[in-house]
Design a protein that fits this description.
350 residues, RNA-binding
Amino acid sequence: EETNNDILQTLCSKARLVDASRLIDVMARRNQIPHFPSCTNLIRGLIRMDRIDKAAKVLKVMVMSGGVPDIITYNMVIGGLCKKALLRSAIDLLEEMSLSGCPPDVITYNTIIRCMFDNGNFDQAVGFWKDQLRKGCPPYLITYTVLIELVCRHCGILRAIEVLEDMAIEGCYPDIITYNSLVNFSCKLGKYEDAALVVYNLLSRGMEPNAITYNTLLHSLCSRGYWDEIDEIFTIMKETSHTPTVVTFNILINGLCKYGLLDRAINFYNEMVSQNCLPDIVTYNTLLGALSKEGMIDEALQVLHILSGTSCSPGLITYNTVIDGLAKKGLMEKAKEVYGQMIENGIIPD
RNA sequence: AGUUGCCUGUCUCC
């Protein structure tokens, strides 16, 4: 046991986390008790590597061995399970928490509610939330922010705004994120009158739209090609303290590309560079997709080549984008070549 | 300290 724990610590410190998790399995089978702090570090590391399955297993061994993981580690594992849509496992773990001496907190509940919501299990999410209220949990802003979209979806924007007002009466003040969620939802439905109503409401509460509010509007307007309105908002952003961000430019570039207006998209690219707003990998992925679609294959390959070895190196989506573009033009040889580059650069295909 | 809520990019489905 002692020897194994020494090995465990060595593996953890050498970042050989999968090996370490196998060792934990072996130790568990031999009824050996793993060193708990190492377990915690291992769990967190495995989550960072997206190996939730392993992390959950180590957590289980730790608990069975009498260890009590801290709330943050638990929440991270539950969050990881939720991201993988393993809601059932997340709920099982939630139930084990209290038994293991580490009762769940708001963050645990919010994580689970969010997961139910994302999976379309709306009734389950609301039921779960009501259970919490019944148990005496005070209303939490983040929970409301997740659920307010449901009110909007089922009862309309006016009711949603009423709920926000009720929240404030209960001392739970909606913030800009809460309002942005509603702006986003309204925009997705193309209900710009509703979005405007939300903006008026946040203004009347002494808040201001932020860059994300504007970006949300821009994204929706872009998908519908409302260029005049887009121009107007972009101008407002430049005049206020909510300067366009890299996301703003990415939205505009993407919108123009989708409409085949690559030249105008490139103008925005130049504008962002000249304003010291650094393009990121999303910017390049967007442009690469457009170049490929327009048949500007050499240009695309050139950009790809330039990107390799910069701080903004091509990722999985970059390669997928270019390979897909080449394949759709029937250029299978070139596609395979790029695939080879991808492997060489250590990117694992999906 | 580190874990939960708002905006952008590829493919598939629509």
